[in-house]
Amino acid sequence: MKKVVLLLLIGFVFSCSDDVQIPEIIQPCQTVAASFASDITDNSARLNWCGSVNEAGECLPVTGVTWTASWGLPGFDPDTGTIIDTPATSINITGLSPQTSYEFYVKSDCDLANNEWFGPVEFRTSCPAPTGLGATNITQTGATLTWMPGGSEISWEIKYGLVGFNLEEAELFATGNSTEHIVNNLMPNSEYEFYVRANCNSVTDGSQTGSSSAFSGPYRFATCLPPINLTFDTVTQNSITVDWDSNAQTTWEVSYGEAAGFTPDTGTITTTNNSNFTATGLCPNTTYTFAVRTICSSTTQSQWFSFGSVTTPTLGYTGMYTYEEIGNTDEPIFGDPATVEIVSVSDTERSITVKYLANLDVAGTQPTMTFNFTLNCDGTVSVPEDQDTNFNCGGANVLLGLGAATPTAYNMVDDTTIDIRFTEDTGSAMCTNAPLSEVTIRLTKI
């Protein structure tokens, strides 16, 4: 009976009171447990924070929360700083000034009164990393490692080892205020690499954040003796000879190409066992760059060493020339001229125009005839169109190009002499009496 009365009373109370409200439970904003800066360089940094931390002090991921970070110079108001909203628990900021202190705050994106900024956390950017890494005075057991300051720093530290060494575990060597460091006791014919970083403060133990720049590197070098005394030997309109001292080595790679945009790895590369090399098939009036390196094994080479650049001479062969056919026992290809005249030369089209007195089989006539040869950069010769000649086969004239005389190759012997090689079509019906299949016309300036 008592239970029934109690239930009736409860029902009566709620039925008589329409204004009773159940309190709304307001969840607090997500708090920030910790924050820190990492990956600090001279102009950037990563800002990190944790929504919660476990007993080991490790950040635990928090999902479903949008965060607001604010950063600026020390003492700034976080409500007016550089503000970034993100669902992640870290952001990368850039455009910072070297060796400058900054602060940052972070909070969840929550409008409740209990949402407060966590911070400030201060960090300092480093100085710029060194540039221009290199290696000189390379021997089979040592080298001098060099670099350029990235800013106003005055001391540096390096790490080096065989290619692929563990940067984190390698020994750190201080170099003082010198931008070079000599390393010894290296293994011959091996590949090494090194990294270098700057000490950002004049006096530092290297432990505080921002006290060192990021490492520059790796720069690779090999204890493989490089070639020395690199020189240009002979330069003609379509060839260049380079020379070097072997430095007691036996195999090299030579790379060359037109200077504009040239890199040794993308040039024309040739392997040679001679300490000199001639590149042929070059173009007149063109600038070329050459480089050479020693090959010590299938996996080890010295660094590339550049000869620099050189420009091939222009064709410049206008004027009067003596005419000689070398090796011809048959009738001369162009009749029997004592001299010819090169009337025009084009470096752009790499062509020469030759004028000579034709010895046609017409009594009492010596007409002047002109032929144009295109001297291709690969050393071949082509004729832009078939041109009438008086190559004398059975009293009939033939065409230069289609007939018995076809230029095939040329050679700029020196500044005064050009050799042009021709083939004669001995299988032609017109030229069955011409036994010679090849002849060289030599033109020598008078």
TrEMBL record:
- InterPro entries referenced in this protein's UniProt entry, alphabetically: ECM_Regulatory_Proteins, FN3_dom, FN3_sf, Ig-like_fold
SUPFAM superfamilies cross-referenced by the UniProt entry: Fibronectin type III
The molecule here is called Fibronectin type-III domain-containing protein
User: Which species is this record about?
Assistant: Kordia algicida OT-1
Q: Which residues form the Fibronectin type-III domain?
A: 129-227, 228-315
Alphabetically sorted, this entry's keywords are: Repeat
CDD domains per the UniProt record, alphabetical: FN3
Kindly indicate whether the keyword Repeat belongs to this entry.
Answer: yes
Q: Which residues cross the membrane?
A: none
